[in-house]
Amino acid sequence: MKKTLSLVLILVMVIGMFVGCTSNESVNPTNTDQSSSEPSDPKFDGVIKMGAVLPLTGPSAESGIACKQGLLIGEAEVNAAGGIKIDGKSYEVKIIMEDDAGSPDQSVSAAEKLLTKDGVSVLFTGCLSSSSLAIMDICDKYPDVLFTTIECTSDNFSKIISENPERYFNFYKPYYGSTDYGAAFGEFVADMSEKGIIDFSNKTVAYMVEDTDAGRSVIPACEAALEKFCGGSTTVAVEVVPQGHTDFYSQINKFKSLDPDVVLTFFVPLNSGVAYVKQTKEIGTEWTDVAIVYPLKAGFIEQTGQNSEGLFWFPQQADFENNPEVKAFAEKVYETFPDAGLNAMHVSSYIGVGMVKEAIEKAGTTNARDGLAEAYGNLDYQSINGRYVFKDDHTSLAGPDYLAITVAQVQDQHSNVVWPENAAFSEPVPQK
Predict the structure, then answer these.
(1) For residue 420, is the peptide bond before it cis, meaning its omega torsion is within 30 degrees of 0?
(2) Roughly how many angstroms between the first and final C-alpha of the chain, as a whole number?
(3) Which residues, 6+ apart, have CB-to-CB distance to 23 below 8 Å?
(4) Hey, CA dihedral for 417, 180, 359, 379, is it positive or negative?
(5) How much is the average pLDDT of 407-420?
(6) In terms of Cα–Cα distance, which of 95, 100, 137, 140 is closest to 120?
(7) Residue 370 gets which letter from DSSP?
(8) What is d(CA 138, CA 62) in angstroms, rounded to the nearest whole number?
(9) Which of 5, 37, 40, 206 could make an S-S bridge to 260, C-beta 3.0–4.6 Å?
(10) How many other CB atoms are there within 10 angstroms of residue 285's CB atom?
(11) Among 16-30, 130-144, 217-231, 284-298, which is the least confidently predicted range?
């Protein structure tokens, strides 16, 4: 009997330890009930609830989890500093997260829940263009709410807002656009060709992108930029693959038969980028690879090893090695989330909280119609990673004085900024 009782007690303890460990992974740094409208600390006069729709599961989960962690660090920092000040009162920030698994349909459902049941004043629409565009379609139903993306690149935001600015007065996209990516790619290829780093003598390019709005829209942007900076180019192939795709052998062999000068790839999930890089080395290719997004993900160099040596990629938007402020933020991420897969999404989401805080305090309200949307659009926000200023189309200015797009190259298992020259920490070298 005693033996049986002891076994039961041990089992209960083990289960308790397991449940405790599991719940700790999802607890935010402030340890508050995010759904409550009551402040967790009596020093606050009230609560400002914000929502975020993120891909916490699915092929883009590493991006969504990074955004969640960045938002929570921003929330904790704001609250530790006394919250958001309006008319002499202090308000606690509570950010409620919903998972959309990277599905636009689920994004809308998650957003509706946050907007109706939870009553958020600000909604972060996420880090995927397709999901944010889906949520954008309902923003006019909630004119009192400020909608803002975290990281989205599609140029469709600019087009849609420009065509109907009154409908989308409360929606903003503080990040680069596909046109910005294209401009950087075209100018970079032109500079590297002139210096003999890239052989662009045939002016031929093949594109491999994920089947997302952001992936598809980057192709015409790059083609237009090559026309401007290189006097034109020939697109020899375009391959659009499902998000999370990992078997590239047929596409790589097709490209190999066409012998392009440059291959541009665009994937968000880390596993897609790792698979592509390894498979190109396995097959053996002679073109110059230029990648967008995936090399900035935590673990990329570790998982690709020497296979990624020499790879050019952008945007190197979060230089965790050479930017002191970003480096210090990285330490804060690891202090709060020791197992974090550190990437640029941590930085962008953290910055987003600071931008919203400043806009609310300048407007003196959490209501988009009563001045918050206008205050947000008029921000000139100097962050740890660049200066955020919105254009008339509610998207961010990109350039050396604003959000700079820098190109990195993997050299000796480190990603070093090599372009533009005034921002470079290393000299570019030809890919082997």
Answers:
(1) yes
(2) 71
(3) none
(4) positive
(5) 95
(6) 95
(7) I
(8) 26
(9) 206
(10) 18
(11) 16-30
250: tokens are: 């047929």
Residue keyed to tokens 């033996």 = 3
Return the higher-pLDDT residue of 176 and 2. Answer: 176
Whole-angstrom distance, CA of residue 181 vs CA of residue 215: 11
What mean pLDDT value characterizes the chain?
A: 91
Q: Give yes or no for residue 17 having a pLDDT over 50.
A: no
Tokens standing for residue 127? 């880090």
Residues 6+ apart with CB under 8 A from 20: none
pLDDT of 220 higher than 60: yes
* DSSP annotation string for 273-285: HHHHHHHHHHH--
Residue 273: is it exposed, middle or buried by C-beta count within 10 angstroms (0-12/13-18/19+)? buried
How does DSSP classify residue 207? E
- 372 has pLDDT over 80: yes
For residue 7, the model assigns a pLDDT of 39
Cα–Cα–Cα angle for 232, 234, 240, rounded to 5 degrees? 120
CA distance 50 to 146: 10
For residues 180 and 408, the answer to whether their CB atoms sit within 8 Å is: no
Structure tokens at 54: 């993120």
**Phi, then psi, of 170 in degrees rounded to 5:** -105, 20
Tally Cβ neighbours within 10 Å of residue 214.
27
Tell me the C-alpha to C-alpha distance, in Å, between residue 379 and each of 4, 11, 75, 95, 374. 66, 56, 19, 21, 9
What gap in Å lies between CA 179 and CA 138, rounded to an integer? 25
Domains by residue range for the chain, with CATH: 46-176+322-389 (3.40.50.2300), 178-314+405-423 (3.40.50.2300)
The number of residues in the chain equals 432
Cα–Cα dist 260/226, whole Å: 14
What is the β-pairing status of strands 122-124 and 146-148? parallel
In the chain, helix, strand, coil percent, each to 5? 45, 20, 35
**Sign of the torsion formed by the C-alpha atoms of 127, 128, 134 and 140:** positive
Q: 22-67: per-residue pLDDT in tens? A: 333 333 444 446 667 788 887 899 999 999 999 999 988 999 999 9
Q: What pLDDT sits at residue 298? A: 83
pLDDT tens for 418-427 read 999 988 889 9
d(CA 300, CA 345): 15
**Per-residue model confidence as pLDDT tens digits over 150-182:** 989 888 999 999 999 999 999 999 998 889 999
